## 1
Amino acid sequence: MPDSLPADSVGIVTPQTYRFETPLKLACGQSLERHDLVVETYGELNADRSNAVLICHALSGHHHAAGYHSMDERKPGWWDACIGPGKPVDTNRFFVVCPNNLGGCHGSTGPNSINPETGKHYGPDFPVVTVGDWVKSQALLADRLGIDCWAAVVGGSLGGMQALQWSLDYPDRLRHAVAIASSPRLTAQNIAFNEVARQAIISDREFHGGRYDDHDTVPRRGLMLARMVGHITYLSDAAMGEKFGRELRDQAYKFGYGVEFQVESYLRYQGERFSETFDANTYLLMTRALDYFDPAYEFNGDLSKALAQATCEYLVLSFSTDWRFTPARSEEMVNAMIAARRKVSYAEIDAPWGHDAFLIPTPRYNAIFSAYMDRVAREVGA
């Protein structure tokens, strides 16, 4: 960490916890009698509360989207490249809100929280949540913050799904929805990847049916394998080839099954690090929420009919080498928006990093994202 913070950083930030005592009815039929959301905010809310932007995180994300928690923190928040003074989501103009989703493992109520009915951690008893449940809890957060209408709801990957769901569930409470590297629903292949990841966790002997906390253990190997599978799908073949190629760690074959190639070492490192910071039950919840997301489901598969109730404008961005959420999935979304006579701007950005490209500030990506958010800011007088 440098002695001083970058000029375009939001600086040192402190998460806040908001408690909601009103029961929250979930799509699965269960309710949470009370719940907490951990939130970070950046920038200032203007006098008429019109400049608020909601940032929705992806599967392994959380509330810490920008800035630093202390001068000792090595890396800034996960989307610091796009949030801050002069960046696409300009905190000199917007009041930015980023919550850790319900069911998360970074402070919001989830499997690691205490179940008031038992006095123990929820563990596997925490109810299955959906993207719609997250949006409902975010609407309660907006009420608490006094925000009647978001200038924009913005997200990448699973976050983009939340932005789309916002436009359907609360059409009069957002002016713009920005869906980046996202999809209107998962393909069978994507659901298959999620199932492999879940089975890696569930089959870990330390999982104990999700009650690993009672056994004072963690299914680290399962989490590690799940992350390795996921990480492979987030990168393009070209990106992995450029970064690692077929380089050997010791420049010679060892004719065994240990770590010999650099890419193997990298994946194991990523998996091990993830297993130390993420909760297994939360991973199961998040991937299942991904699987279930399909706003066209109640409209006989016709997304344009689902979008007929939306009133906001959309920005949809995809990346050429993203094979997890391909440009074709974004184009499917855009075509449905056009059929529903919604206003939408779309761009496919040429970038070599696969799905992770939405986290990397390339010039064309930055230019398009910044230009759109500049228009959003001007509309609300920010």
## 2
Amino acid sequence: MTLQESLLGFAAIAALITVLPGTDTALVLRYTLSQGRRHAYTAALGMITGAFVWGAAAATGVSALLTVSEVAYDILRIAGALYMLWLAVGLWRASFAKHDGALPPGALPHHSLEPLKRTWAKGFISNILNPKYGMFCIAVIPQFLVPGVPSVWMGLLLSVVANVEAIIWFIAIVAAAQFFGRWLNGGTFRKWIDRVTGTALGAFGVVAILETRHA
């Protein structure tokens, strides 16, 4: 397998994983509609940072420990599930809070905007506590290593490819949400997007816990 073939093959698989509905997509969509484009991109940056940490860990063999230690994997999975449930509860609580009248998309009052550091942290934690992405890196990256290229550098390069695709996907989500947000204005819709996103995150958390119990 040549370097070009490796990058193209991995890019195809990573693209499929990227566009699958998940917590990352749900959070970016919610931030776009409730906080604005700046917060959405900040959350996406946090997610991409977490994804790169997973890719780097897989490339250096650190996260391979999770495949050996079932306990470590279960602890990480439960921690991620609890974090998603915590986010879900927060979104449902926010949906019952009083909002101002109809405003342009993302134009919530200044005091309602979440600090960008917290937004980045939420994106980062949501990804770093996602062991399934780590398992994806461990299972897939070794299949695309190229003879003659150091495995660490090759793994990092493949991680960059996946993150570039994620950036493109997040930009598309934000653009689409802002475009359709012109017709989905007002506090009522923001309440429902919080509830739908919260329900989705809660469902992912419950499924993760059930998978741990039946593993």
## 3
Amino acid sequence: MTGSEARAPFITFEGIDGAGKTTQLEALCHFLQSRGTPFERTREPGGTPAGERLREVVLAEAMQPETELLVMFAARCEHVQARILPAITAGRWVVCDRFSDASYAYQVGGRGVDAARFALIERWVLGGFRPDLTFLFDLDPAVAGRRLAQAGTRVRDRFERLDQAFFARVRAAYLERAAREPGRFVVLDATRPPEALSQQVIAEVQRRWPS
């Protein structure tokens, strides 16, 4: 499935750890709920029982970068086929915390997996399926690191514990991906106040889907 004319929208939220994307995803969900739009909120890795078990593994266990990529796409394959496509074809919007762009940013940009190998796996698992709209919350890794340090006592997963050099590569890969698909991506300055970002997100959704 590649077209979006006969189905509900699929919207994703992306950004490095600490960029505040989950807060903005919640704001959009509140907006959709307030206008009576049927939707599902989900996340990657995860979104299905099998995906959530794979999430536990990939966030806790050290593994080779290629293995990491394959686990991510295994969870994504199940997610798309078992949850995302059924929802959007039934008329329910899907709002997702991360998707394939995150694998490009973290595994290709951050880990150094070959981009051609990534593209091959992405085509095999997704074909031409992509989000209709992707919000990328762009933030300097140094600022993101300070935010995470101030976030409290929550135990960080193994990705969140990586250094700023890793997240600088991830950020660069995200921006590279966004530059290649300007019609799908909306890049937002994550240093702006959360309320202002929420207004931008909702305004963009209303612009694209006014009804």
